[in-house]
Amino acid sequence: MAGKFDGFGPLQTSPLRDQVYTALRQRISNGLFPDTGVVEQELSETLQVSRTPVREALFQLCREGVLVKRGRGYHLPPLSPEERSQISEVREVLDPLMVRLALKRSGATILERLRPAYIAEQAAHRAGDTRAFVQAHAEFRAALRDGARNDRLAQIIELLDDQIIRQRMITHAIPENRDHTLRTHARIIAAAETGEPEHGAEAMEELMRFAQVYLNSC
């Protein structure tokens, strides 16, 4: 039985397909997509729209590798070791670039979003709340994506983030991994404060290497 997809009122303006797609992507990015998946008919009833825009949005998410269809339901995809490794290789290049551009182009103004997200990460870590940590982590990364001021880069990184959200939930359920992420984010904030983009990029490069080693050990 698929989980109920709560948290939305009716969608009324067009194009409905794009609204459904955006709503689903937001829930996925924030770690709020039901673990048991969603069913087209139930999602249509929750959003109070016809099944056509729901079906189209779900089809696009499957085509992008963000969801997979199993039986009647749609689920977050389980990634093979090879798929995880391939995504990690791409992130080793793109994530440090994102940090470098964000700190160069947005300067200290990016701290207005990074600091609250980091504080929320710390609180979630102390509480052992993986879902809350992933939500705060998503906001930290969103601040970096926006701060980089490169729409193409942001689209690619956001898509990769959504493809690995299930793996991210598993990874951040481990306190040591959350702690390592927090240390990296603290270094990025410090680099933003001192105006040293390369230091922030180096911190992200180290985190990506740590992530690759962790994935190889799984």
Written description of the protein model:
The protein is built from 10 helices and 3 strands; from the N terminus they run H-E-H-H-E-E-H-H-H-H-H-H-H. With 218 residues, the protein is mainly alpha-helical. It folds into 2 domains: 60 residues, Arc Repressor Mutant, subunit A (Orthogonal Bundle), CATH 1.10.10; 137 residues, Up-down Bundle (Four Helix Bundle (Hemerythrin (Met), subunit A)), CATH 1.20.120.530. A hairpin with a 2-residue loop joins strand 2 and strand 3. The longest helix has 26 residues.
List the helices and strands and how they pair.
Blueprint: H1 16-29, E1 38-39, H2 40-47, H3 51-63, E2 68-70, E3 73-75, H4 81-106, H5 111-127, H6 130-148, H7 151-163, H8 165-172, H9 175-194, H10 197-217
Antiparallel strand pairs: 1-3, 2-3
Helix pairs in contact: 1-3, 2-3, 4-6, 4-7, 4-10, 5-6, 5-9, 6-7, 9-10
**Secondary structure tally, helices:** 10
Total of domains: 2
Order of helices and strands: HEHHEEHHHHHHH
Overall mean pLDDT: 91
